[in-house]
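Lecture 7 notes: from sequence to structure.

We start with a single chain of 172 residues. Read the sequence below before looking at the structure.
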Amino acid sequence: MENSRLFQRFITLIAEIFDKKFSKTLMQAYWGALEDYTDEQCARAFEYLLKNSKYLPKPAHIIEAIHLTSPNQGITPCEARIQIEEWLYNGGPKPRDPLTQEIIRSYGGWERLGMTSYHDLKFLLRDIEERFEAICARRGIRSYLPEGQNPNQKFTTISNQDQPNFQSDTFL
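Now the structure, written as tokens:
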């Protein structure tokens, strides 16, 4: 989150609704937890929490709401890998996609990946696609399927009855 005014507006609103006073330290903790997310993602999450939360949301609740309210952006495992490697090897921008962020957390966070040697990274990152698919399966997301493919489609195999019998007299 980059817009501090928007952040303060939502925190003030949440504080008033739940009759809680936020100290400067607590505000910094919330701000730090949301720094990897866009303003739009945070705004959707705050609006969701205002409508659905019974208790004062903690940063983890806000992040969970971000994941629940983020539209499916259709990122593929390969795109997630490219984003992560671009940041690690070339100093590119940190990926902001929630799915990619969860993959990074599964590795121990940005700090752990940033401190890993180049030699060890190639072994550490070799299973990004598997982690991506596991996270998608856990969330019930099928964003990695090609467009138009039915996720419930069963693949059929040719049974022995359908195969021609090359030892019969008709083929000789």
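The chain has two domains: 4-69, 77-139. Keep this in mind for problem set 3.
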